[in-house]
Each structure stands twice: as C-alpha cells, then as structure tokens.
What does this fold into?
Amino acid sequence: MSTVPGPLVRRLLQRDAPRVVIEIDGVAAAAFAGESLLVAMLGLGARLRSHELDGAPRAGFCLMGACQDCWVWQADGTRLRACTTRVVAGMRVRTAAPDPGDDA
Ligand code: FES
It folds into this structure.
C-alpha cells in the first residue's frame, strides 16, 4: 500500500479556462483561472492546511463557505476560505499562518 499522499480531487471535466501560475508554500503550481482555490490546491496535493490542535491534514468539509475548515493564508497573513476563493494568476497562498515577523 502506498503511503505517498496524492491529490484528493480529480477534475472530471476538461476545462478550457486558461492555465495560470499560483504559488503554494513558495512552490509554483499551475491552476485553471477561475476555479476554486480548494480544487486547485487539492488537485495538486493532499491538504489545504493542518489542524491547529493535532496537525491532521484538512481538506475542507462543506465546500460552500460555512464550516471554515478550508482556511489558507495569503503572504500578508490574510485568511481566505479556499472553497469560496477563485484562483487568479500570481496569487500566493500558504497552508500555515505566517509568523507575525515573517515578511514573505
Ligand atoms: S470547506 Fe467549509 S468553509 Fe470552505
């Protein structure tokens, strides 16, 4: 049995939206312009963030902006709900809250 985490979601429909580059934890990644950040991130990896108490991987729950399980952070520390945020070219997100003194 493989222990390497893979994507948690797979797009079933071929999208004709343009591909854009975003940055996740400092790593460039390709996403479709306009898709939700949640789909883009889970299509690339196995978590949006880690749970604050036990570090367990989180991937969202309600997928409609109600549960707050999909928080991710922008470089300036602003939180975003990944499920209700659309991907735009050049966005930079983190899977953990930045340290207050971090200037990335
Ligand atoms: S998954 Fe519930 S608010 Fe985003």
